[in-house]
Specification:
About 55% of the residues lie in helices and about 0% in strands. The chain has about 280 residues and is mainly alpha-helical. The longest helix is centred in the N-terminal third of the chain and has 16 residues. The radius of gyration is 26 Å and the shape is elongated.
Length: about 280
């Protein structure tokens, strides 16, 4: 299939305009000028196709639009914004949802951006999190979409907690508002089993989840004599966010992370106040 490089045609026209009128606008103004010009370009008649670029894509069927997107990516020709605009203007349709079964990373990313948080994709999103064909970039994007609708996918996400994809599942579960007991136990267990380096992340998930039942476990953890400064700070924040308090003074003057933070802050603690010479907090 021979593709029309609409972006190249537009860029050539703009290059001539900019060369001729370079001093007429600031860099910021040129951004607005280019955006406005691209909109007009979409409605400009092109003899090569016998219609405007916008009409060219508008006359295609749903499947044809998706196939066109695939071809632009396959042939490494710049994907026209006008093509994406036409697809998005039609809402989420079956041929677009079918792209979620493809494994080409760039194509799938386009589909994710266009489909977004449409409920019809949730089931497939959850499946994709468990499939080896998709890398962390795809799964990160899916997790970002699902965590905004976490209450709707609890049942599909819970089984992932016991797999290598648990980090994605836990991030999503932390955003539920239903306070599902299974989700709580999964988050608490992950925190308890986590390494010192991972505990701040999972403490943050408990803070986001917002269940005060986690307080006793968090209090035991923060009382550890060998606790590091970074974990201490995250635990203190989590405890307070759940309605608890921890006011005991601790000395972190020998903690490497504390020293780096203090050095970067010029002697001020991370909350903007002055710190004592012993590094108590």
């Amino acid at each position: 299939m021979k593709l029309i490089d609409f972006d190249d045609k537009f860029n050539r026209k703009m290059a001539k305009m900019i060369e001729k009128h370079a001093g007429d606008h600031t860099e910021a103004e040129w951004e607005d000028v280019i955006a406005e010009a691209y909109g007009k370009f979409g409605d400009t008649y092109l003899a090569e196709i016998g219609k405007t670029p916008r009409q060219y894509f508008a006359e295609m069927g749903d499947k044809q639009l998706v196939e066109m997107l695939k071809e632009y990516l396959l042939q490494q020709v710049s994907v026209p914004d006008l093509l994406c605009e036409e697809i998005e203007s039609r809402g989420v349709f079956e041929a677009l949802l079918d792209v979620l079964h493809d494994t080409d990373e760039e194509l799938v990313h386009y589909a994710l951006n266009m489909i977004g948080s449409d409920r019809r994709a949730f089931g497939r999103y959850c499946e994709m999190l468990s499939e080896e064909e998709y890398d962390e970039h795809i799964k990160d994007s899916i997790a970002d979409l699902l965590k905004e609708k976490a209450d709707d996918v609890i049942e599909q996400i819970l089984p992932l907690v016991k797999t290598e994809n648990a980090p994605y599942a836990l991030e999503i579960l932390s955003r539920t508002s239903k306070k599902d007991a299974r989700a709580y136990q999964a988050l608490l267990s992950a925190f308890q089993k986590a390494s010192e380096e991972e505990k701040p992340l999972y403490a943050g998930y408990l803070a986001t989840f917002g269940d005060e039942r986690a307080l006793p476990c968090l209090m035991r953890e923060i009382e550890r004599e060998d606790i590091g400064f970074v974990l201490y700070q995250e635990l203190k924040f989590t405890i307070e966010s759940l309605g608890g308090e921890y006011e005991k003074e601790r000395d972190f003057s020998a903690d490497p992370a504390y020293k780096k933070i203090m050095a970067a802050g010029g002697g001020a603690d991370i909350f903007g106040g002055r710190s004592s010479s012993k590094g108590k907090n």
